[in-house]
Amino acid sequence: MAKNILLVDDSKTVRVQVGAAIRDKGYNVVEASDGLEALAVLEKRRDIAMVISDVNMPGMDGLELLEAIQRRPDCAKLPVVILTTEARQQLVDRAKGAGAKGWMIKPFNPQVLLAAVQKLAGNP
Amino acid sequence: MTDSSFPELRSVAGALWGHIERAIAARLPVLERVIELSEREVLAAVMIVQNINAESKRALKDLEVVASCLSTTRVKNAPPSLGDSVAQQADAYAQFVGLCGTTERQLSEQQGLAGKASIAVKRILNIVGEVDGIAQRACITTFNARIESARMGAAARTFDVIADELRDMTEAVQRLNVEIKSIGEELMKVIPVMAEGAGTLRESHAHISASLGKHMSEVCDSQRRAMAVLNDAVVAGRARTDEIVEQSHEVMSRLQFQDRISQDLSALINQEIASGELVERSLMALDSDERPEPDDVEREGRAIEEIRHGNIQADESDEESPRAEAEPAGEMLFF
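Output (structure tokens, whole complex):
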């Protein structure tokens, strides 16, 4: 069974691009358009291997989502990578303090992202 | 500023706000439509690029399958490729040529033997002729012996017996001669036919061997040419696919920038709407003759600043939120 990657971004374009790159390598992709939707997915499913999240989203942003994930005992060890246009150091520090595993600035490099997915979630 | 200037200030501010409100109201639908269309077009472009990528990869894979069908690379448990079949045919033809050579040598030997047999039969017929001559002389001798025997009377009776025996032997030899001659003449008819048949067979073998050789040579050349063309096509296809993938990454990066611009534009609009709402609230406060508290003014000013910095990247000169010395775009910063 292929591993499931939760992709959180309010931009459908980004979800299509990133999703295609990850699916191409054999992973399954579950999409959410904001932090609240992502939490609802994590509530229902226990088979998510990794989360890739944007920062700037309506409702609940990516850093709030990261902090919410870390508070849940069943998800605290779930690897989370931030994929965003933001480059402010205070946001990077906040993500690092909240337990994120990586920070990537858009536009993303498919090979680099896939290497990170393979490293953090394992082979498909 | 005195209290008496407030009504004029309110009037000016009200007119200004009305102008701003109308300008925003006129432009907002257009901007929203532009953003919506831009996002839709970006998504469509992304799908098209992905389809081009997928198609080029599929075409390359098909080309590689065709090339492997023609190649002579033996793959374990796979059915033999066309190239393998051609190679096997070439091996079989080489064995056939070897056999043809052997057969040709044997036919040549047969032709040689037929020639020797013909010479031998001619010698036998010559010998038969000589024996016939000897038999005729024996007949004459027997005839003469009878004459002498008749002249010598009873004393030559033994001589008669010998002459009779000689005559019988001579007749038997002559009968055998006739038979040998008949056999020899039959052989003389058959031997050339056999030699001719061996010659014809040799010619047929040579002709078939030459035709098959030419055919096999053409088949092998065709297979080699097809392989060379396909290999060139596969190499070119791989290079082209790599080029397409690289260019599509470039296009995707540009589309992500465009998508980001749309998001920034959308954020700007939200910011302007929020700023307008704050201005409206301030004007309403003026209308009610309430003077804003210094704390309220400061709070509203901070609110406007927060909105301004809300969804847009901070200026590089912003000291409160410096940009990370992080990896450039596309690279991963691991924690």
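The first strand of chain A starts at residue 4 and ends at 8.
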